[in-house]
Design brief:
234 residues, alpha+beta, Arylsulfatase, C-terminal domain, four-stranded antiparallel sheet, two-stranded antiparallel ribbon, 26% helix, Sulfatase_N, Alkaline_phosphatase_core_sf
Length: 234
């Protein structure tokens, strides 16, 4: 089903039922684009630890509560939607476990800052990076499959397809000239620090210029590593 048409049917049905102004509708994605999708000018893709692998659109609609056209680029995570929806519905969160998500309704309605001091990203089962509102520390070397496959000039075949249909090749994706910085930047290495406020494309490692930021974020990373180790062994 066409995406726009499908969403339109949901919204139309809510209106028919008289629930459109009583319902908060949230549209988002689980990760960045695969081969053939636009990264919006960011570095990386799905399965990458660069911003294009993690950063996704989030569109929310709730007449009378969320101002039309409002935007906020403060960091939030998918797990925040659980807590947010519970609070919207006036349902108390479970008290028999730790709920990591935060209520982000203030982000949807105002210029509020993120409720998270830092957020973390994983590469498979491994904790890969930590970031705050401005800085992102790649403790593990960032992965960039898009650049690797483009350099190899390989097509990508979806082995799950019965006929092995070849999907859009990496070099058929949006051209680097259309999205500057997509395939460029410092080569991946451990402990790289990027200033996302001034370098959203993660082009220049500035860890040598800001050792205090590296240390602060690395301390947060180490703390989370210990928490995860204790949690998974229980």
């Amino acid at each position: 089903m066409d995406l726009d048409a499908g969403i339109g049917e949901v919204l139309d049905r809510l209106k028919e039922l008289g629930l459109d102004e009583k319902t908060c509708v949230i549209f988002t994605s689980d990760n960045g684009p695969w081969f053939g999708g636009s990264t919006g000018g960011l570095r990386g893709m799905k399965a990458s630890t660069y911003e294009a692998g993690y950063r996704v659109p989030c569109i929310a609609r709730w007449p009378g509560h969320i101002p039309p056209g409002h935007t906020n680029d403060s960091p939030a995570m998918m797990m925040d939607l659980f807590t947010t929806v519970l609070n919207i519905a006036d349902v108390p969160p479970p008290d028999d476990r730790v709920i990591d998500g935060q209520d982000i309704m203030s982000l949807l309605t105002s210029d509020a800052d993120s409720p998270h001091e830092v957020t973390f990203g994983q590469a498979g089962p491994r904790l890969a990076h930590v970031r705050d509102a401005r800085w992102k520390l790649h403790v593990l070397p960032p992965s960039d499959r898009h650049a690797e496959k483009t350099a190899e000039s390989e097509t990508w075949v979806d082995w799950r397809a019965p006929d092995g249909v070849t999907l859009l090749a990496p070099f058929e994706q949006a051209r680097p000239s259309e999205h500057p910085g997509l395939l460029s930047g410092d080569q991946p290495a451990p402990m790289q620090l990027f200033d996302l406020k001034n370098d959203l494309g993660e082009q220049k490692d500035v860890s040598a210029k800001h050792p205090e930021v590296v240390q602060r974020l690395k301390t947060k990373y180490d703390t989370m590593q210990r928490v995860l180790a204790e949690t998974t062994t229980k």
